[in-house]
């Protein structure tokens, strides 16, 4: 009977060791997946900042300077991008150029009156 019990205990130990190994592998896979997910989120964040956040922040700062009267109408926004942000830059540059022409016209009219 002792031999049967020893075999049963050995079989149980092997099954338990197999379960522990399986759970260890599962935990390792979850940890690897978590690290990969963090790297992916980091790359997405860097891409978002480079592609969307920084250009919109530059546009906001430029418009804020103009609104406060400190902006330079001779400076153009970056319109080299082929997306909506580049289109906003191009459209605003045209708007700014028309305002500059209007201001020059008003200044010329004032000097012609004097």
From TrEMBL:
GO terms for biological process: signal transduction. The keyword Transmembrane helix applies. GO terms for cellular component: membrane. Residues 50-104 form the HAMP domain. The chain crosses the membrane at residues 27-48. SUPFAM superfamilies: HAMP domain-like. The keyword Transcription does not apply. Pfam families: HAMP (PF00672). It comes from the Bacteria. Keywords: Membrane, Transmembrane, Transmembrane helix. This is Methyl-accepting chemotaxis protein PctB. It comes from Acidithrix ferrooxidans. The lineage of its organism: Bacteria, Bacillati, Actinomycetota, Acidimicrobiia, Acidimicrobiales.
